Amino acid sequence: MSLSADRDRAAEKPTLYKQIRNDIERRILTGEWPPGHRIPFEHQLMTRYGCSRMTVNKALSELAQADLIERRRRAGTFVRRPQHLSAVLQIADIRAEISALGRSYGYELIHAARRTANGADRTRLGVRKAGKVIAIACRHSADDVPFAVEDRLIDLETVPEAATADFAVEPPGSWLLHHVPWTEAEHTISAVVADASTAAALAIAVGAPCLVIDRHTWRSARTVTAVRLLYPGDSHRLVAHFKGG
What we know:
Blueprint: H1 3-12, H2 16-29, E1 38-39, H3 42-49, H4 53-65, E2 69-72, E3 76-79, H5 94-100, E4 105-116, H6 119-125, E5 132-142, E6 145-155, H7 172-179, E7 184-193, H8 196-202, E8 209-219, E9 222-232
Antiparallel strand pairs: 1-3, 2-3, 4-5, 5-6, 6-9, 7-8, 8-9
């Protein structure tokens, strides 16, 4: 097919590339195509949508610019995995973290509630609309000893499939990492002293120091989740290794 004919064909359907982009984006956001999944090859997409390579390439280029996919020369196109900068900045799966230490992982859902976001929820998530959220509190343990307590909000406007997830069985952090790609994250690290409820949850003394990680994640400027993780201060540390360029 000539270049001019290719252009004419693309011109006949000026919004087809958007249809392709939206279809692929939907599959990624719903978790149908999880991080690391190979996207069909360009010639397969051309056949599926009945379009030119130029149209497919435009859709894939926009998805790559949005950090949803990565295109690897000679290997193909894949749903993008989050890029970790350091141990402090990475979004770790607590279940995997505990297992990597050679300890037995335990999980307990304390409560979970689906509701319309109140003012405090919207402030915490950084959103303006009063959409639906899931509020979750849970505890992670290592060898039956409390390891961390988690207080999380998930924005159902961005992650509607979370409404049917079984967080009594699967930790929300693990579920999100395996089902929802993110493009931006922010960590705030601080320290507090344990109040009565935190002390009881972590089996430490009231007033004992706690390490706090407040994390927000976004996908293309849309809030995915806000979570606060509290760890006993005397049994957890953050390590970052940097190498000069």
